[in-house]
Amino acid sequence: MSTQNILKGFVLPGLVQPLLSPEANPGYGRLREAFAKVRAEIELLNPDVLMIYSSMWPSILGHQIQARKEITWTHVDEEFHELGSIPYTFKIDDLLAKEYVAAGIQRGLQMRATDYHGFPIDTGSVVALKLLNADNRWPAIIVSSNIYSDRAETVVLGKAALDALTTQKKKAVAIIISTLSNRLHSQVIDPQADKIHSLKDQEWNLKIIEFLQKGRLEDVAQLSRQIHREARVKKVNNFKPFWWLSSVMGAHNRYQGEILAYEPVYGTGCAVIGLTPAQASSRDLEFDEDSPDVFVGERNVLAASADAKSEMSSQTLNPGLESGFEPGFEPGFKPGYTDE
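Above: the chain sequence. Below: its structure as tokens.
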């Protein structure tokens, strides 16, 4: 499938500190400066729309698309409400959103448009649009992240986005809102002492950054399950953002990567990364998974055997009882945090 409709892709963190308290830590300030650089790049590209996939907007029944032409509200982050309120007015490309819904349904997905006053926009999308598009120079659309969907469904969701762009002859900048590692500190910290939650998380973050700096987007997408196991709090069915981004931009490694910032924010790994389509490939590998065009269910080609699954289930049924943490929560997990 042609991806000429996508001018560039960005990986952006969604926590509020770069927006509301950039002065509290030098790293937060560097993230804020990186957002400003992204804004400048988007100005040069001048797309028709900003297309956002936010891991901080979880949906349960299928996939939702923001389709209200103008959204006005005041947002307070559920985790860091002490940092203040965020009033906003955003312009949404309602026609493209509805086209996206139709394209997704055509490809076998359960999709719906969200169009009513007061529907809450997630923190990540609010932060991104306030820092990149506060003047509403470009309309946006925001797509949810279904907590139960896996790779095939997410790949098809990306292809439906391209269908909609092609039908309406629009060019977009593709944005995923997600941290890399997502473990938060479980205790209140001094922002000046912020650091990545664990050495393991740091190592995985640096590996992801190394791949993306070399333009190896599809390699990262193929590693998404492993990343989810190693550096993510396991609240959802696998780590989806890079599946969607790879599907939208093109499932290969022909990109020029640029790391604009990488900093800890309350223990999580927050990176601002740009990916520009390129002619040369850093590396192409033989991948294990196919690229479905219509969603008819998951193949589970990398699923563990039934015996292994049974053993894993018995070992992890109640991890909190032995660790001293609340059952179902991993060390460092802060209940209520919605980034996948």
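The radius of gyration is 19 Å.
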